[in-house]
Every structure is written in structure tokens, then in C-alpha cells.
């Protein structure tokens, strides 16, 4: 079924019409309040792609979360002046098609940096300190350190960061406080930025160099055709068998079948995922039952403050796009 939130009185006289393609927030009161300042009507779509298109075709702007906005969808937009995504990644939007249609696409690259970095750190420490094994030891009625051996000091460890954007940089600051060395692979970091990096950060020019030298690896890449499947069986085989992997970035960066295979074979000690491919997984309980694999349901981004920030900043991009102001976060 299709429905939309009731428009405000006199909505037909609004200057602009903004459509939320997929509503995931508790309310859109904040968006409605902000858009009211430029005389913009806000309509929330529900239903499948065709139902959303019924509203989106003549919209002046789209606010988007997960709904795929591909070339075919974009070709049917008659009046759209901006597509603003609430989150960081924009892999669900065909940016090239939008650019060809003269429609800017924006994201909110900085709304949950603190949250994702903290969640990643928690998962890393959980694995490196073997917290799950300790909990399971007590749960089974035992009281021994035998099941968590061997443990290294954190200051003796090397954590690999694949990608070095805002989240990875914030995580690196936390790891520095624990005297953990960071090994970073990111071909887009400039020579100047490398030279200014803190002493606990070491850059490598090849992914293999990182894989072979770390005790843990954390992924911080956008999902692109080049990074899809970045970590597969070949890459996992190059990690030390005591190593662990954390992914709070994008599920398709990792070949899930290859990861499960490495865990079952004992060639990788553990992994923690906040994102998987696909989402939601067909069998979440079965996935989490894999020995050594720990899964959270895509919650790394979440705090109430982060949600409000995403709503406010995405809506601000719409307002700026509709009123001819420069955009802060254009990605195409």
C-alpha cells in the first residue's frame, strides 16, 4: 500500500515540494520545520519503487536513505534540483546519471564520525582482549584464563586501517591513547598528509603489506566498483592466523563466504561486523552462530544526536540547493 503524511493546509500554494523517498527516522518534524522557512512542502513516500516515483517525478528535491536511485529512476525526475542522502555512503545513487541530468547529489559525511569510531574501537577491543571467550568461559561454569590464551599487550599490537577518512582518523587517535601502532593503506592520502601524521601511524603503499603485518584490520572504505569484494579469500589468507577483522563501513567490501570459510578453517581468529551483504541477512542467527564471528545490526552510526544531525544537515543541503546557495557536501 501507498500513503503519505498529510500535507499542511494550503500545501498547493507551496513554492517547493520535497519528497522523502524512504522514511527511517522516528519523525520528520525537524525537516518539516526547516523546510517551512523556504515555503517547501514535505511529503513522505511509502511503498515500492513505482509508488515512490509517483511522488518523486515532479518533486523539486529528494531526501533519500536506502532506496536505490538508479539511472532509470533519475530519468523520470522532471523537476528535481537536488538529491540529498541522509548518510555517508552514496552507493545506492547513480551519481553519474544524476550529474548528466544536472542534479547535484549530496551526503552527510561527518554526522556519525564519533559514533562509528567508538563502535569500531569497542569491537576491536572486544576481539583483541578475547572478551567473548571470557564470557563464554563463565557462562559454561568455568573460571580460568585457559580459553583466552594467548593475549598480547595492546601496546605490542599493530592495527591495520584500510582507508583513512574522518572515521579512521578519529579511531587512530583513540588507538594512539592505547599505544597501539596503526598501519594505514589509503592511496588517496597525500605525501604531505603522510608527513604530518603522528608517530604511531605508519603508511604502506600496498594492501598486501598491511595484511602481512597486522594483528587486526579495520575497514573504512566507501563502496565503489573498485572496493566491492576488496577483502576476499586471497586477502584473508595473507593475514596472520591470530589476526581479527572488523568492518563497520560497507558490507560488500568483504566476501562473506570467504570470511566464514577462513573462520571455520582457523586461518583467521575472529571477526566483528556491523555491516553485511546483503542487509538484512537472510539468516542473521545463522550468520552470528559462525564460530569467531560477532555481528551487530548496523548500529555503529547510531545515537539520537547523530540522527538529528543527519536530518538537519541533509535538509540544509536541500534548502541550499533550492535557494541557489553553494552546497557543502556535493559528491558528483
UniProtKB/TrEMBL annotation:
GO terms for MF: NAD binding; oxidoreductase activity, acting on the CH-OH group of donors, NAD or NADP as acceptor; transcription corepressor activity
UniProt keyword Cytoplasm, yes or no: no
InterPro entries: CtBP, D-iso_2-hydroxyacid_DH_PdxB, D-isomer_2_OHA_DH_cat_dom, D-isomer_DH_NAD-bd, NAD(P)-bd_dom_sf
NAD among keywords: yes
Domain (D-isomer specific 2-hydroxyacid dehydrogenase NAD-binding): residue spans on this chain: 121-300
Keywords: NAD, Oxidoreductase
Residues annotated as domain D-isomer specific 2-hydroxyacid dehydrogenase catalytic: 30-332
One Pfam family of this chain: 2-Hacid_dh_C
Family membership noted in the UniProt record: Belongs to the D-isomer specific 2-hydroxyacid dehydrogenase family.
Protein's recorded name: C-terminal binding protein
Species of provenance: Phytoactinopolyspora halophila
Amino acid at each position: 500500500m501507498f500513503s503519505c503524511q498529510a500535507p499542511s493546509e494550503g500545501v498547493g500554494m507551496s513554492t517547493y515540494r520535497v519528497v522523502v523517498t524512504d522514511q527511517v527516522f522516528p519523525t520528520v518534524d525537524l525537516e518539516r520545520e526547516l523546510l517551512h522557512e523556504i515555503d517547501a512542502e514535505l511529503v513522505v513516500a511509502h511503498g515500492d519503487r513505482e509508488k515512490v516515483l509517483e511522488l518523486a517525478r515532479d518533486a523539486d528535491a529528494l531526501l533519500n536513505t536506502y532506496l536505490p536511485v538508479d539511472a532509470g529512476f533519475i530519468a523520470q525526475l522532471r523537476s528535481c534540483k537536488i538529491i540529498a542522502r541522509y548518510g555517508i555512503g552514496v552507493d545506492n545513487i547513480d551519481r553519474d546519471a544524476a550529474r548528466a541530468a544536472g542534479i547535484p547529489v549530496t551526503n552527510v559525511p561527518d554526522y556519525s564520525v564519533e559514533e562509528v569510531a567508538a563502535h569500531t574501537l569497542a569491537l576491536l577491543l572486544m576481539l583483541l582482549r578475547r572478551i567473548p571467550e571470557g564470557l563464554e568461559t563463565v557462562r559454561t561454569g568455568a573460571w580460568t584464563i585457559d580459553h583466552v590464551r594467548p593475549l598480547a599487550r595492546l601496546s605490542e599490537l599493530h592495527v591495520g586501517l584500510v582507508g583513512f577518512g574522518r572515521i579512521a582518523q578519529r579511531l587512530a587517535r583513540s588507538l594512539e591513547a592505547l599505544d597501539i601502532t596503526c598501519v594505514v593503506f589509503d592511496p588517496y592520502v597525500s605525501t604531505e598528509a603522510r608527513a604530518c601524521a603522528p608517530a604511531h601511524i605508519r603508511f604502506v603503499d600496498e594492501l598486501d603489506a598491511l595484511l602481512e603485518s597486522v594483528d587486526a584490520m579495520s575497514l573504512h572504505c566507501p563502496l565503489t566498483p573498485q572496493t566491492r569484494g576488496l577483502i576476499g579469500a586471497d586477502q584473508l589468507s595473507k593475514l596472520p592466523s591470530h589476526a581479527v577483522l572488523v568492518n563497520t563501513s560497507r558490507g560488500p567490501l568483504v566476501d562473506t563466504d570467504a570470511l566464514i570459510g577462513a573462520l571455520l578453517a582457523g586461518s583467521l581468529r575472529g571477526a566483528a561486523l556491523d555491516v553485511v551483504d546483503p542487509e538484512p541477512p537472510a539468516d542473521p542467527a545463522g550468520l552470528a552462530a559462525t564460530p569467531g564471528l560477532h555481528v551487530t545490526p548496523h548500529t555503529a552510526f547510531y545515537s539520537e544526536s547523530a540522527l538529528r544531525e543527519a536530518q538537519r544537515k541533509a535538509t540544509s543541503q536541500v534548502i541550499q540547493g533550492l535557494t541557489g546557495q553553494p552546497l557543502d557536501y556535493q559528491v558528483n
